[in-house]
Amino acid sequence: MDRRDVLRAMTALPMLRAAWPEPASAQTYPVRNITMIVPFPAGGQADLAARPVAQALERVLGKAVIVDNRAGGAGGSVGNAAAARAEPDGCTLLMTLSSLAVLPEADRLFDRPVAYEVSQFMPIARVLADPTLLAVPASAPWKTAQEFVEDAKKRPGQITYGSSGPYGTLHVAMEMFASSADIKLLHVPFRGAGPALTALLGGTVQAIAAAPGTLKPQVDDGKLRVLGNCGAKRIASFPDVPTFQELGYKDVEMYIWAGLFAQSSLPAPIATRLREAMAQVMTSPDVLRTFDASGSLVAYQDAPEFADFVTRDSARLIAAVRKIGRVE
Fold first, then answer.
1. Angle, alpha carbons 135-306-249 (nearest 5°)
2. Are residues 95 and 165 in the same domain?
3. Are residues 111 and 162 in the same domain?
4. Which of 24, 59, 181, 325 pairs with 244 at a CA distance of 20 to 30 A?
5. Of the candidates 8, 59, 66, 11, which has an alpha carbon nearest to the alpha carbon of residue 37?
6. Which family does the record claim for this protein (predicted)?
7. What residue numbers bound the domain in which 80 lies?
8. Please, are residues 258 and 54 in contact by the beta-carbon 8 Å criterion?
């Protein structure tokens, strides 16, 4: 190759570079619409978190963000697994709950194939972090948690409660309370908190543990009564409801947090863009008003803090599941 050939090759090189597509992580994100998987039916905590966040995220990122309720049951495991298997391009996200770490442990407890591992996910941002509350119909005979416990001790296994599925957040909260109170309740699993709440309102079950935002509209309408709070302190939306720790059940502490996740192999530039977008979303006046009206206060954490929180909370919940053992 003579000097003129070398010069021609050098001249052509920038054009060849321009024709060659850049890696997806370097392109302007997002390149297409985003799907936000919610592994539960509408009406529960994850759905409550997802919808205002999706609307605000659309405005920030300039692409549609479609909430996809994967109501496949298994306490949310089906939807979580679907998100874990998705292409790590930032266009399939997961808005899920604290049961994320519990469900793989439940699979191991029952010697089942593990649907997914927490290590397959990258925390992006925490959205909500509410204590679970024990609620019963307003027509129920129990006015206090003490009356509920006394009745349960007289009738072991006869008081029914609904949950979002075995070892989901609502199930673990109720079993944690039942273990501490030394009572036996009858678990009736549903495909999500929304259907479980519908069953409670319809008289199919007699109690439920759920997030404040899920319960508040029904309490305000006089349909439900809240007896106890699984958090470490009382909350503004239910200031008169005592914590179970106040009532002497010192080891009852359960939070139903909701957070946004992507796949662990998500390219760093896309993860950074998502984190920046969520920082804007979680200070949006519309988002703050929506959550405030629902009785769930924003509990935003950026990825590093959220990752630490998930690690600590997951360890505590896994220990609780092992203590509860195999229950149906």
1. 35
2. no
3. no
4. 325
5. 66
6. Belongs to the UPF0065 (bug) family.
7. 32-129+256-324
8. no
